[in-house]
Amino acid sequence: MSIFEYRGFAGVRLAAEVIGADDDPSVLLIHGAGQTRRVWDSIANALQQAGRRVISLDLRGHGGSEWPEDGRYDFEAMVEDLRAVLAQLGTRPVVVASTLGGWIAAAALERDAAMLAAGLVLVDLPLNVDPDVSQKIGARLRDVAMLAPGQARWDIRVLGAFDAAAMTERLDGVAEHIGLPTLYVRGAMSEIVSREDAEAFVDRLPDGEFVEVEDAALVVTDDRVDALGGHLIDFLERRAPRGSPEYRAGSDARTFRDALGCFATGVTVVTAFCPDGRPIGLTANSFTSVSLDPPLLLVCIANNAGSAPFLREAERFAVNVLQIGQQPTSNRFAGKGEDRFAATPWEVGEFGTPVLTGSLSSFECVRDAVHDGGDHFLLVGRVIKAIFEPRRDPLLYFRGKYRKLHFA
């Protein structure tokens, strides 16, 4: 067991207990209001035995995490805490979150979910909470905190920062944007969420599943952890397996594509003129230098691309390496049905090729060779001019998403 510290929103210190081997796939556990990471102890041990690296996080104002002097416990601060922790992890975990933690996780993964996590499990996520039930739960938590003043495991000021009605309203429309395999676990006797509301939420998820734990009001309790652990391990083995995905010749081409996507690349737009003088271009990330003497580079062009016949025959072409502000340009030249050059700043280069202005770098080339390569062809160019902008950062592409450099 190790204790790690992370930096949350505005530098707040967040403590987490970590068990399991570093190389095992990770699971991040997030507790609810009035709890600490200790509530997950049994679950964490079961997950470790199932071959998972388990990170149990204390929310701000809870357990070993910082209790901010300014009492900053608003919902968005906690959402940004979680996003900050996920960004600091060396791998994308499956996030398992209960009640308040579920609110936080759902909101945090509404954006860029696939870049931050591998899956999501929401346990007893409150939806359309009855005001009377909300007040009863709040009073119960206050009573527990007041029984042992000075020994509380969490800052009672947390309760004043949340309005259950506002939270459920904040989550309206979030489900549709959580682009991850997601499991919703509900206690069959729950008073904080009805089966109908839970099923409706799951139906809106792009990839959702629903299970109930019998004879339970709240699932994360001592007498129901075995049932919860069983559902968690089943979900993890099916949707985030320990073994690496594998491609073999003749199997699913998508798996091969995903494997190739593990190689982070820059993004380019390859441009040329048609014989009738029209500029053409397309987005390509299969680009590499070939030789310094002579100065050669190559790009791979799909045979079925609309611009492919012209690029195959073009005597001269340009490769424009895009910078981080040119993501719209990348999308434009990757799509169809739009006058790509009308909406893109460009000029005719010194050697008669369309050059996209403002690019990270642009290479004007004379065709040196063309080689067939399966469903693509390799266009080799001899560089006759190169210009670049050293003060810009590159637009990157990794695992099907645009990325940007992170400077340590």
From TrEMBL:
Gene3D superfamilies: alpha/beta hydrolase, Electron Transport, Fmn-binding Protein, Chain A. This is Flavin reductase like domain-containing protein. It comes from Sphingopyxis soli. Residues 260-404 form the Flavin reductase like domain. It holds the Pfam family Flavin_Reduct. The keyword DNA-binding does not apply. Keywords: Oxidoreductase. InterPro entries: AB_hydrolase_1, AB_hydrolase_fold, Flavin_Rdtase-like_dom, NADH-dep_flavin_reductase, Split_barrel_FMN-bd. SMART domains: Flavin_Reduct. It comes from the Bacteria. PANTHER family: FLAVIN REDUCTASE, FMN REDUCTASE (NADH) RUTF. SUPFAM superfamilies: alpha/beta-Hydrolases, FMN-binding split barrel.
